[in-house]
Amino acid sequence: NAGVTQTPKFQVLKTGQSMTLQCAQDMNHEYMSWYRQDPGMGLRLIHYSVGAGITDQGEVPNGYNVSRSTTEDFPLRLLSAAPSQTSVYFCATKTGASYNEQFFGPGTRLTVL
Amino acid sequence: AQSVTQLGSHVSVSEGALVLLRCNYSSSVPPYLFWYVQYPNQGLQLLLKYTTGATLVKGINGFEAEFKKSETSFHLTKPSAHMSDAAEYFCAVSDVDNFGNEKLTFGTGTRLTIIP
């Protein structure tokens, strides 16, 4: 099992460009989420999904869109990239049961120039 | 709203010495607490968690943490540091919002350096 995979590992964008960060899991977990990690700020929740067809906003959702058409995939879209979105992005999954461990992907390092 | 405070963004200890990483939380309801570790250029992985029951929780790699409600603390310890413990450590608290959705709030992290 691959667990949680993220692509690409690295990406450089120019301001205003759009892109999609991919996240896939083969653990059959209902819950998926996206975090961004910035120095001195820990991880902050961007969006999350409790199952296919259901998404909701986290702490820092502005500038990002998500969709969840399948259990396995949870892409994160940047419609018009800004330098403030330079960060490391992590996807995480867990079962639907409360307070269970979250499993994290290896991350995508994004730089917006 | 819940929050997590990790005292000390950087901690250095000698190999073989005690590791103590501090975490304090605020929560209006009984907390569910976690410690995650992040090795360089990797995602986070769970070290240990506290939900209910025994307040001293043992995790992987010899780490343990004690939940102290009176002090609103969940400090992480390891009796003897190893070079392989060098990493960044995150304390987190989990809560359920008004719609029944669980959310994890992370502290800002503590980078642990081991001195040979």
Could you please describe the fold and organization of this structure?
The complex is a heterodimer of chains A (113) and B (116). Helix content of chain A is 0%, strand content 51%. Chain A has 113 residues and is an all-beta fold. In chain A, strand 4 and strand 5 form a beta hairpin. Chain A is globular, with a radius of gyration of 13 Å. Helices cover 0% and strands 54% of the residues of chain B. Chain B has strands at 3-5, 10-14, 19-21, 24-26, 32-38, 44-50, 56-58, 64-68, 73-78, 87-96, 102-106, 110-115. In chain B, strands 2, 5, 6, 10, 11 and 12 form a 6-stranded mixed sheet that branches. Chain B has a 4-stranded antiparallel sheet with strand order 3-9-8-7, with no helix packed on it. A two-stranded antiparallel ribbon of chain B has the order 1-4. Chains A and B meet through strand 5 of A and strand 6, strand 10 and strand 11 of B.
Give the SSE layout.
The complex is a heterodimer of chains A (113) and B (116).
Chain A: E1 4-7, E2 10-13, E3 19-25, E4 31-38, E5 42-51, E6 54-57, E7 64-66, E8 76-78, E9 87-94, E10 103-104, E11 108-112
Parallel strand pairs in A: 2-11
Antiparallel strand pairs in A: 1-3, 3-8, 4-5, 4-9, 5-6, 7-8, 9-10, 9-11
Chain B: E1 3-5, E2 10-14, E3 19-21, E4 24-26, E5 32-38, E6 44-50, E7 56-58, E8 64-68, E9 73-78, E10 87-96, E11 102-106, E12 110-115
Parallel strand pairs in B: 2-12
Antiparallel strand pairs in B: 1-4, 3-9, 5-6, 5-10, 7-8, 8-9, 10-11, 10-12
